[in-house]
Specification:
CATH architecture: Sandwich
CATH superfamily: Calcium-mediated lectin
Order of helices and strands: HHHEEEEEEEEHEEH
Oligomer: single chain
CATH class: Mainly Beta
Number of helices: 5
Largest sheet: 6 strands, antiparallel
Number of domains: 1
Bound molecules: calcium ion
Radius of gyration: 24 Å
Shape: globular
Distance between the termini: 91 Å
CATH topology: Jelly Rolls
Length: about 230
């Protein structure tokens, strides 16, 4: 009986511990910079009060590799706290999208088409260090990018306010932390480079009903051709 209790206790402790390990901490340190939640509020007319709450209230996540169809991605750098470069990497090949985005609010829009699935990166101009959406590529193994799926009503507000009528299939706000997690002064404010990512609507695939109609049409045509041939 005692043994069972101990095992159960260990199991519960293990579950609690793994839960903690998955949580991402986003801070709002005192500084002149716009916090991540303030940039979110500005872009989408929301009323969040902290970046950690924003992460907890919306489905924030990190994604190792991003899906790229062959129809391109539109990305708009919206905020940087210091000069930063945004890009994507396929295999070992880096492509800069927005070079030396200056501090403050921006509207640097850059559509691109990658050759296959890719990872995002940002380069902090001062340190020259690259930070990737795939934590396995980061020198400290940490999560340096978080992505938020933007709700439809917020996308609608953004399009109306910033004349950006792309009507994408999905819109994400991606936010980078440019400090090395092995250095204790890293602030984890995830406002060092913030960009809006719009994934275009995928090309339409003919519906089964259309295919059936097209198929029966072809059969009909074949029948007509056969009759003509017989004559
Ligand atoms: Ca930071
Ligand atoms: Ca910062």
């Amino acid at each position: 009986m005692k043994k069972t209790i101990v095992i159960l206790g260990l199991l519960i402790f293990g579950l609690a511990f793994s839960g903690v390990a998955n949580a991402l901490t986003i801070n709002d340190p005192v500084s002149g910079e716009q916090k991540l939640y303030q940039v979110w509020n500005y872009l989408f007319n929301d009323i969040q009060t902290s970046s950690q709450l924003l992460y907890d209230n919306h489905p924030g996540f990190t994604q190792a590799s991003w899906d790229e169809g062959n129809w391109g991605v539109n990305v708009t750098a919206r905020y940087a706290d210091f000069s930063q470069t945004l890009g994507y990497q396929v295999g070992a090949t880096k492509t800069d999208i927005a070079i030396n985005v200056p501090a403050g609010y921006n509207f640097f829009s850059a559509p691109f088409t990658a050759s296959s699935d890719f990872v995002w990166y940002e380069k902090y101009s001062s340190s020259g260090l690259y930070w990737y959406s795939d934590s396995a590529l980061n020198i400290d193994g940490g999560e340096h990018m978080v992505a938020f799926l933007v709700p439809a009503n917020f996308v609608e507000y953004y399009n109306r306010t910033f004349n950006d009528n792309k009507n994408p299939e999905a819109t994400y706000l991606i936010a980078f932390e440019d400090g090395d997690f092995n250095i204790t002064t890293t602030d984890r404010d995830y406002n060092d480079l913030i960009a809006l990512v719009e994934q275009p609507v995928t090309p339409a695939i003919p519906e089964p009903a259309t295919m059936l109609l097209l198929g029966s049409g072809l059969v009909g045509l074949a029948g007509f051709a056969r009759r003509r041939f017989k004559k």
